[in-house]
Structure to design on (299 residues):
């Protein structure tokens, strides 16, 4: 018997874990960006293998029994097939289980039990499961098709409100954006924004400092209230098909940390639309979830 490896192939890094037959974690590895949508399938597969090799070494060496990989876009059969071909050259003969990052995140959060995973980072999405294998997805189609409540959306919405606000009401927020985009006039902000709009991660990075300012900026407080409502709606859309009345909801992503003002607003929004729901942190990591899904696929 060898190691079962699980990998969360993200846009900023690949995180891998080696688990034994009892699902206990024995080794970890970290490598560079592994999202094929960002770096291409060949480069992503190299980083995936690097993270796996580190996890095996940390576990003390040994054979690989199978590998599970979760990545953004992994819901697409075409994307899974392309990545599988690349990985086959690095992991010849090793059974692969490929899935979306939401699927491995949900498995890590609840271990197969019923619950809803809500993600708010650069983008936004959610995946709910009824505990019997059925799932329901909401969102996650990118900034041009939605991503309401995400970091990208928060920054975009804040700039739009500031540009439309009466002069005194929006000036501090406009000053923030002028400094960031290195422009002198407010009317230069739209063109500066559009030039950067094809780099979602850079726009989304503005969300963290904006959230920090929300306590003293009414416009930003409004944006966060709207973002929380959008994220709560994702949870509702995942709960509805299974009639989950008071589901457990796990939060991941850089915007929903335990002390984030957005998380507090999200908790209030969820309480209104899904009374009795329990907000929680994931029980385990997405990479552990990927390993578990690979193990279950072999049963």
């Amino acid at each position: 018997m060898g190691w079962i490896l699980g990998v969360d192939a993200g846009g900023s890094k690949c995180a891998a874990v080696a688990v034994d037959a009892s699902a206990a974690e024995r080794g970890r590895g970290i490598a560079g960006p592994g999202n094929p949508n960002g770096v291409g399938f060949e480069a992503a597969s190299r980083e995936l293998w690097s993270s796996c090799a580190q996890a095996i070494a940390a576990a003390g060496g040994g054979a690989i029994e199978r590998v599970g990989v979760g990545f953004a876009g992994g819901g697409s059969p075409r994307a899974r097939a392309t990545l599988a071909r690349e990985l086959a050259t690095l992991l010849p003969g090793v059974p692969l289980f490929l899935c979306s990052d939401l699927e491995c995140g949900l498995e890590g959060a609840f271990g197969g039990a019923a619950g809803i995973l809500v993600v708010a980072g650069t983008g936004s999405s959610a995946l709910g499961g009824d505990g019997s294998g059925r799932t329901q997805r909401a969102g996650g189609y990118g900034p041009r098709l939605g991503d309401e409540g995400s970091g990208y959306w928060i920054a975009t919405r804040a700039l739009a409100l500031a540009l439309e606000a009466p002069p005194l009401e929006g000036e501090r927020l406009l000053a923030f954006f002028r400094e960031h985009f290195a422009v002198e006039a407010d009317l230069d902000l739209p063109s500066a924004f559009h030039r950067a709009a094809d780099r979602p991660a850079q726009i989304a990075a503005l969300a963290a400092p904006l959230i920090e300012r929300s306590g003293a900026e009414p416009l930003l407080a409004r944006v966060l209230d709207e973002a929380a409502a959008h994220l709560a709606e994702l949870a509702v859309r995942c709960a509805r098909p299974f009639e989950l009345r008071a589901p457990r909801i796990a939060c991941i992503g850089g915007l929903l940390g335990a002390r984030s003002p957005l998380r507090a607003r999200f908790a209030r929004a969820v309480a209104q639309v899904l009374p009795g729901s329990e907000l929680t942190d994931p029980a385990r990591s997405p990479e552990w979830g990927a390993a578990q899904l690979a193990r279950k696929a072999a049963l």
About this structure: Residues 51 and 171 are 46 Å apart (CA to CA).
